[in-house]
Amino acid sequence: MTNKHEYAEKLKRQLAEWEQDIDRLEAKLDQTQDQYRTQLDQKLTELKSKRAELKQRFEKLEDAAEEAWEDLREGLELAWDSLKLGVLSAKSEFMNEDKQ
Prior knowledge:
Order of helices and strands: HHH
Distance between the termini: 44 Å
Oligomer: single chain
């Protein structure tokens, strides 16, 4: 089982990667045709909301005592999975060059 510090570091690295993906999707929004623009804008709004929720849960994890962090882990992992699926879905849907 990983400790709180290892878990937090893993989460920080993954969150930074997903933030880069979200930034790339935002850049793609400027290049996207109107029919996809609305869909991408909605997806980005959802991803930003999920990212904010994950960051909030992560802050609680960082503030938690070593003994209590396991209690926060389940909710954090749900938020993690939600953001992960959202990013993967958006990337596969909107990063194809043929949708420009």
